[in-house]
């Protein structure tokens, strides 16, 4: 029996959940699904340019596990780019990091900063970036 998958720690959930080639109607397009931990692996390695040991540590996985996740993510991205498929970000076995958030506007990492808002009698909390207040 296979060992259960360990939840991978992610620090960022992309605002855009879907990308597709321009000029092709949705009904005529195939899609490739990237899990959120695959997106996180690509973000850490290719955008933040960390080495694999640092990436694995931030995701709370072993270095070989990180390598497998990264290889699968890059394979899916290459398939979508070369064959003209859409890319959908969703699902996976992940846990959102408690310590830091990542601002999608300015790229700043920050601890939780709340802004309380009242809507229809309920209080909602929104995370605010201390750099750009978004």
TrEMBL record:
Pfam families: DUF134. Belongs to the UPF0251 family. This is UPF0251 protein GM661_01985. It comes from Iocasia fonsfrigidae.
């Amino acid at each position: 029996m296979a060992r259960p998958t360990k939840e991978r720690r992610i620090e960022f959930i992309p605002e855009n959940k879907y990308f597709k080639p321009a000029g092709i109607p949705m009904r005529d397009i195939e899609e490739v699904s990237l899990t959120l931990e695959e997106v996180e692996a690509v973000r850490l390695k290719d955008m933040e340019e960390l080495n694999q040991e640092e990436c694995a540590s931030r995701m709370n996985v072993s270095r070989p596990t990180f390598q497998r996740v990264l290889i699968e993510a890059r394979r899916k991205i290459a398939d979508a780019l070369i064959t003209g498929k859409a890319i959908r970000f969703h699902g996976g076995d992940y846990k959102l990091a408690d310590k830091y958030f990542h601002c999608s506007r300015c790229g700043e990492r920050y601890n939780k900063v709340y802004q309380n808002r009242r809507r229809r009698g309920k209080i909602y909390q929104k995370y605010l970036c201390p750099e750009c207040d978004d």
